[in-house]
From TrEMBL:
<comment type="function">
    <text>Converts cobyric acid to cobinamide by the addition of aminopropanol on the F carboxylic group.</text>
</comment>
<comment type="similarity">
    <text>Belongs to the CobD/CbiB family.</text>
</comment>
<feature type="transmembrane region" description="Helical">
    <location>
        <begin position="301"/>
        <end position="318"/>
    </location>
</feature>
<keyword id="KW-0812">Transmembrane</keyword>
<protein>
    <recommendedName>
        <fullName>Cobalamin biosynthesis protein CobD</fullName>
    </recommendedName>
</protein>
<feature type="transmembrane region" description="Helical">
    <location>
        <begin position="87"/>
        <end position="104"/>
    </location>
</feature>
<keyword id="KW-0169">Cobalamin biosynthesis</keyword>
<feature type="transmembrane region" description="Helical">
    <location>
        <begin position="161"/>
        <end position="183"/>
    </location>
</feature>
<dbReference type="Pfam" id="PF03186">
    <property type="entry name" value="CobD_Cbib"/>
</dbReference>
<keyword id="KW-0472">Membrane</keyword>
<feature type="transmembrane region" description="Helical">
    <location>
        <begin position="62"/>
        <end position="80"/>
    </location>
</feature>
<keyword id="KW-1133">Transmembrane helix</keyword>
<dbReference type="InterPro" id="IPR004485">
    <property type="entry name" value="Cobalamin_biosynth_CobD/CbiB"/>
</dbReference>
<keyword id="KW-1003">Cell membrane</keyword>
<comment type="pathway">
    <text>Cofactor biosynthesis; adenosylcobalamin biosynthesis.</text>
</comment>
Amino acid sequence: MAAVELLPLLQLPLCALVAVGLDRLFGEPRRFHPLVGFGRLAQGIEAALRRFPTRHNWQKSAGIAAWALAVLPFAGLALWLRNIAPAWLVVPLDVVLLYFALGAESLREHVVPIAAALDAGELPAAREAVGRIVSRDTTALDEPAVARAAVESTLENGSDAVFGALFWFALLGGPGALLFRLANTLDAMWGYRNERYLHFGRAAARVDDLLGYLPARLCALTYAVLGRGGQALACWRAQAPLWDSPNAGPVMAAGAGSLGVSLGGAAVYHGQREARPALGVGPAPTAADIRRALTLVRRGIGLWLLAGFVPALVWGALHA
């Protein structure tokens, strides 16, 4: 009887463990990736809605409509299927949805070549590799700037591509992970403060900020726990409020403090030099620090998976 009562507490953490394992083994699908199709759908929705008047208020409304048309049907369908599916089908549905929402292995595949190129003294290759994961201009970056961009992206994507999905999976199962990943994808597509997306992409950026608010702070806390905790928390408190993004600030400040490196500083975006606040404390990062940042994310995944089993372990201890 006790074992039967324990199963509901074990279901989500076991599904998360399997999904993380699948991501580690296979990474993201090489062909027919659902998010590629979703991106094309989002582009089609944007193109259709942009045919109408271009006034600011209309663009804001169009952005809200575009977000709803792109995300809600899929998230709603996933939630409906999960609610009507027999118990034996809920588990594979949750595993598949979380697997598609996770991007830990993809992050590793993009980051490791940057460190390898820097180690080999191949700066042009390192610039090209880091350019695939950041939006800043990488053509003139020196070695410390390449490493800085890679570490920043690793820490931030740890929150966006891993911990955010795990957080919403813990709350709402597979549909929650799907909702977060789709919203985060639209923010990556539309959430720019430029002429094209300043108004149209505002809804996508705000929803992503809202959905990522708690996961980002739990991610920052995770980075602190797994590294130089006091320094990470001090950087978080002092530096995160200076950062434009309400979620990237805590994540990167805590991550930089945990690793003991200096991030932030000036960067060029779309031909414009931006003076970004400093993050962290210590020397400029190197190739070794890129790998340390990736290890921090991976250890964080292990910590979160372990934490998922805590309720079941406590329940089992109390009813032993």
